[in-house]
Amino acid sequence: MSGILELESLLKSLSPELQPQEYVFCSVPNTLSEMLALQPIATFLEKEGLTIILPKNVAEDKDLFFSSTYKMITLTVHSSLDAVGLTASVASKLSERGISANVIAAYYHDHIFVPSQRAEEAMEALAEFTN
């Protein structure tokens, strides 16, 4: 099943869903295999360390350092990984309101991490695409 490629169709069909959990980004010196027990929702290996994204409460339980908390907004539209402009459009819309956006594209959906305290405002901004 392939996703939608056409930007206008994607933007009109975003159907963003705000997830209730708070997430954090942590950088750890550990290997991925050492961190899998924490069940991070995403990882990325950088030369400085392994970035893991996990629920705030898990990071707190394990005394992992994080500097900010985020809420995840899932764009439930099935976007193609080859679609052009979706990330830029979403980031621009949130930027208009001064909201940072950390976007992760997965196979079926895009997920935007926004500062926890700005999550509702981010949802309002994204709703403007369908108005």
Automatic annotation (TrEMBL):
SUPFAM superfamilies documented for this protein: ACT-like
Origin: domain of life: Bacteria
Residues in DUF2241 domain copies: 2-68
Domain CASTOR ACT: 69-127
Pfam families from the UniProt entry: ACT_3 (PF10000), ACT_7 (PF13840)
Record Gene3D superfamilies: VC0802-like (3.30.2130.10)
Name of the molecule in the record: Transporter
Organism of derivation: Photobacterium ganghwense
